[in-house]
Amino acid sequence: MNDAFKIFKSFFNQKFGKSLVIKGSPGSGKTTFSLELASQLLEEQPIHYLSSRFTDEPLKENFDFIDKISYRMKQRESERKENLKYVSTESLKKLEKIIEENNMKNDNDFSGGLVFDITEVVPEINEIYNFVEKNIDKGPVIILDSIEALAEKYHLDPTLIFSVFQNDLVEKSGAGLIVVLESIGNEKLEYYSDGVISLSSKIVQNYLVRKLRIEKLRGMSVGSLPVYSYTLLNGRFTFFDSLNLNYPKKRIPMPEVNEEIQYKVPLGNKEIGKLMPNGNPYIDLGSIVLFHRNTISDRTEMAVNLIKNTLIRTTIADGRGAMDVSSGSYETMRVLMTTTDPEYLTHYITAEKTKRTNQFIINLEGKSMTSDFPMEVIDFFMNSSKRPNVYIFSTDFLNFTYGENFVGELLSLINELRISGIIVIITDDNYYRKLSHYAYMTLHFVDIEGCIYLNSGGDDHFALETITDETGWTSYNLTESV
């Protein structure tokens, strides 16, 4: 279960009852979130779901448990009013008087005594109180989706209904209450609630970005930045896990790779296929792929290195050669030497402006790429590797080593290398514009409020999430943002 849902589950598992307000613009996923949370809570707590929809049938496709918690089902099962022994009805009785006198006041001035039975007039409220009565010792949770719909149906004020439930059911009976707001907010209602979250969706740099922000959560520690990115993919509410590179500290098994597709080169992870036009994680021999750092940040650099390192590891596991001439090559070499058997490291080389002798390093003079990367030197280092190879460069490293006018020499070198493999160029905006028309495809990396999104030029874009694969290697998933 995602850490964010653990926070909300713990919130409703506290000793005393708690209320949570969910607000956000239309289409931001308020209903989906409330049902996703219900699916988590239902493991240990009974749920009562009251929807303003005409039918709950559309929800069953993604939440097949809806019949177990829906008011419509409970209404069919409960034909008579329960005698309430354990649930407080103090505020409910005051509400009865207000309704009878037709004197709804925004200041919630409760006065007078019981005159008539509100539960005969408002069956939804009757069933909510009955539900809490039946499950008083089980931590029952009520979901009102939405509270405005219930208030409008009976010409009540939403804040008044919330106050009644907060007093009787949450504070005095220990129930949980989740309230969905159709409006952007209700300051008075939010003030009395124990928790408030806001959902938002907006377009940033042509990316659909969804954010959940915890504004208040009494009794819980939510950290200094309680903001989470999420998607509504396949009608479910799914948080994106944070990017976390935590490579193993010891040798681990290499992946089993059996890539025998002629004139095609795998990109190291099947997830990359989601960004390819044909859905396959392979590109043609001789192709140039750009990793475009659309934004420069530590997280973007981390994401690029994650995909690059996974590509290198899969390549050398297959016995093919990988040449890494990038600014992150030192860190990559350190990780590979820690986690990989020496027999595989013979397929990996990098380059440095150094005089030291090393079987993994091409020594660079820094005067020109032509003199530093003659084909006989590359062939010498890769003579034990089968083809096709993967050749990786980064424009920041080349700029630092050769100056800003290296592009012409790089293209000349690429023309020689592409007959034996593919070329990956990690670039920022400046050099991306100079190289983009040479590329077979481009992966665009953008950091938006701490979440890394990838796009290959189409309408679909994906969030990058780190995972630990079956070998113990830190790899990644791509989850579509919708």
Estimate the global geometry from the Cα principal axes.
elongated
Strand order of the largest sheet: 14-13-12-15-16-11-17-18-19-20
Number of distinct helices: 19
Low-confidence stretches: 103-116
Q: In percent, how much strand structure appears in the residues?
A: 15-25%
Report the average pLDDT across residues.
Answer: 89
Q: What does the largest sheet look like?
A: 10 strands, mixed
Q: Total number of β-strand segments?
A: 20
**What integer value in Å does the Rg equal?**
30 Å
* Head-to-tail CA distance between termini: 20 Å
Written account of the structure:
With 482 residues, the chain is of the alpha/beta class. Helix content is 34%, strand content 24%. It contains 19 helices and 20 strands. Strands 14-13-12-15-16-11-17-18-19-20 form a ten-stranded mixed sheet, sandwiched between helices. The chain has an eight-stranded mixed sheet with strand order 2-3-4-1-5-6-7-8, sandwiched between helices. A hairpin with a 2-residue loop joins strand 17 and strand 18. Helix 6 runs antiparallel to helix 10. The longest helix is centred in the middle third of the chain and has 20 residues. The chain is elongated and about 95 Å long. It starts with a helix and ends with a strand.
